[in-house]
Amino acid sequence: MRMCSSAGADIREFAGPLRGPPLVPLLDAIEAGEKPVVAAIEGVALGGGFELALVCHYRIVHFKARLGLPEVTLGILPAAGGTQRLPRLIGIPAALELITTGRHISAQEALKLGIVDQVTEQNACELAVEFALRAVAKPLSSRRVSMLTTPCPPDLDALLEAVTMQVKRKARGVMAPLACIQAVRAAATMPYSKGIKRESELMATLFNSGQARALQYCFFAQRTAGKWTLPSGAQWNNSKPREIRSAAIIGLGTMGRGIVVSLARVGISVIAVESEKKLLETGKQMVIGMLERDAKRRGVSASLNLLKFTLSLQDLKDVDLVIEAVFEDMALKKRVFQELSKVCRPATLLCTNTSGLDVDALAGVTDRPHLVVGMHFFSPAHVMKLLEVVCGPRSSSETIATAMSLGKRMGKVSVAVGNCPGFVGNRMLKPYLDQATFLLEEGATPEQIDKALEDFGFAMGVFRMSDLAGLDVGWRVRKESGLIGPDVDPKNPPRRRQGRRYCPIPDMVCEQGRFGQKTGRGWYMYDKPGGTNAKPDPLIQNLLEMYRSRYGIQPRNISDQEIIERCLFALANEGFRILEDGIAARPEDIDVIYLFGYGFPRHGGGPMFYASMVGLERVLERLEHYHQAHPDVPHLEPSPLLKKLVACGSPPVQKWREHIKTMHSHL
Ligand SMILES: CC/C=C/CC(=O)SCCNC(=O)CCNC(=O)[C@H](O)C(C)(C)COP(=O)(O)OP(=O)(O)OC[C@H]1O[C@@H](n2cnc3c(N)ncnc32)[C@H](O)[C@@H]1OP(=O)(O)O
């Protein structure tokens, strides 16, 4: 049997009723046949493709092929016998690991695990024919995997329990890996005929679940995000990116260091610039250490020869692209861009890693506004997968194509977004954070809010995330935007700014020098500065009590449901406004940003998909309810697009674009 490449079932078909003959009897018949069947695998054998290979009597694999059972990542399980045959072939621990993670493995690893019989650098099909001819005379009984006894460890229950705990810790609230564990248990404790029925029952609990819908949506959303398009007609498949061989990074702070590592490990020469000798030396040592650790983990040699460190911008005159990663200060950034304009050759692309400042204002101080684009990395930049590519009104399609393609080369999930304060991710963060702090005023605690969000599936609750990111950054932004400090009108009521509700508690926390993990104190307390073990702090509790009594606020019991609704519906509501404003082209782009940059649980699909799953009508009704209760919070006022979609019968996410197309695009 020649399997050039099989990515398994067509995932799009899972949205409707499955058609075609049932697969399991067909696969069982192949395995039971008297003629030897040899699978020749090239490319990939994933999901159903891998399950087909497992019923063959022998498996020959090209050395570049990849195999796996990724169903769990789609919210389902391998239900064509995969959970019953793989444990019989390679034992419970290895099968559990592959099935519960969905990890793809190389041909070499498959050989080591005993999944395949031979790995070849030649034509796998020709070798498989030779193999079949030699196999004709041999008995097949030991080659029928479903007939094998599952090699079982003596402490099976303890092993399954440990894996269950691990899965629950890593993927809180996710159903599919737990169902996979139960199916593998059946392979260990039941004959194949019963095990396959159990597999099918477990699949039935997952197949139409909201989690499966969300995870399958994420698969396609991630691929859709790469397909950027501009109102000019320029798009991903008609705009040629430039080839980038050399780059420069300005600023060796946390972000700059991560960007240097991301570039060097994909073979790009990097010149790193700092303003002072001591900062340069510290940054250099840290980058070298990061690259060495990264290379060791990947089993390759560190590409240190690609690095150059300098104090002089003059050294950048020949690079293909510069990424500025200096302090988040517009005046400083403008000075850097003016200087770069003078120093770099006219064709050099100038990028900024700003997390929210006006990219077009920076373009305006250069001699080449069409070659300026935002490349907003997320911290730590060598780990986080998200890259927002911020298209200014003057960025050329070639510039955007180059930034998107460079992101892909660095292994990032790149999303093109428009230029507005905070772009997509950080603009949406504001109403989300605001709701969390308003809930504190009204009676909740940081740990209660975090627990509700973490139970929902967020990697980290909003307060733990803020402690990790550093509270001083937002404090500085609030000072600069006149929300605190001498510019505030003294006649302003204390909990109002710029005509709307304002919660000063985050400022009070910062005034105490509590900047989060780095200072050992923030919304939580930590063992030491830089510690990561967050413990509730009675001082924060006192601060909240004093605050409420000072302003005469009677604390009330706040339910987890209210926390989730207010935080997440406010988040999605801003997403609708971003779509209206043309700052993101599609809801999928917003969801991908929140999945890869902000720890939104994949099994929730992202804020926009989640809103559609809850039901747009319900989201609208709850926002109207909360806005009525808090009329001084404009973010809770339902957006016109949300209302329009509800009026149109709440179409699925993939159809929202049809209702936005008349609106103006900033991409
Ligand atoms: C009946 C038995 C039931 C069995 C259950 C299953 O088989 S579930 C499916 C299990 N298979 C997978 O999960 C594989 C998913 N695909 C991948 O991991 C990758 O696409 C790949 C195969 C490793 C190829 O990666 P690469 O980076 O080379 O390409 P893309 O990811 O960009 O994909 C190219 C286009 O192909 C589409 N696509 C890929 N796999 C599937 C699939 N199984 N079903 C439907 N569509 C698939 C993908 O969406 C891309 O299409 P675009 O139109 O370009 O977006």
Automatic annotation (TrEMBL):
Reactions mediated catalytically: (3S)-hydroxyhexanoyl-CoA = (2E)-hexenoyl-CoA + H2O; (3E)-decenoyl-CoA = (2E)-decenoyl-CoA; (3Z)-hexenoyl-CoA = (2E)-hexenoyl-CoA; a (3Z)-enoyl-CoA = a 4-saturated (2E)-enoyl-CoA
Name listed for the protein in its UniProt record: Peroxisomal bifunctional enzyme
MF terms (GO), sorted A to Z: (3S)-3-hydroxyacyl-CoA dehydrogenase (NAD+) activity; delta(3)-delta(2)-enoyl-CoA isomerase activity; enoyl-CoA hydratase activity; NAD+ binding
EC number: 1.1.1.35, 4.2.1.17, 5.3.3.8
Keywords: Fatty acid metabolism, Isomerase, Lipid metabolism, Lyase, Multifunctional enzyme, NAD, Oxidoreductase, Peroxisome
Domain 3-hydroxyacyl-CoA dehydrogenase C-terminal: 422-526, 563-650
Pathways per UniProt: Lipid metabolism; fatty acid beta-oxidation
Subcellular location field: Peroxisome
Pfam families (UniProt xref): 3HCDH, 3HCDH_N, ECH_1
Taxon lineage: Eukaryota, Metazoa, Chordata, Craniata, Vertebrata
Subunit structure: Monomer.
GO cellular component, one term: peroxisome
Residue stretches making up the 3-hydroxyacyl-CoA dehydrogenase NAD binding domain: 247-419
InterPro entries associated with the record: 3-OHacyl-CoA_DH_CS (IPR006180), 3-OHacyl-CoA_DH_NAD-bd (IPR006176), 3HC_DH_C (IPR006108), 6-PGluconate_DH-like_C_sf (IPR008927), ClpP/crotonase-like_dom_sf (IPR029045), Enoyl-CoA_hyd/isom_CS (IPR018376), Enoyl-CoA_hydra/iso (IPR001753), NAD(P)-bd_dom_sf (IPR036291)
Record carries keyword Lipid metabolism: yes
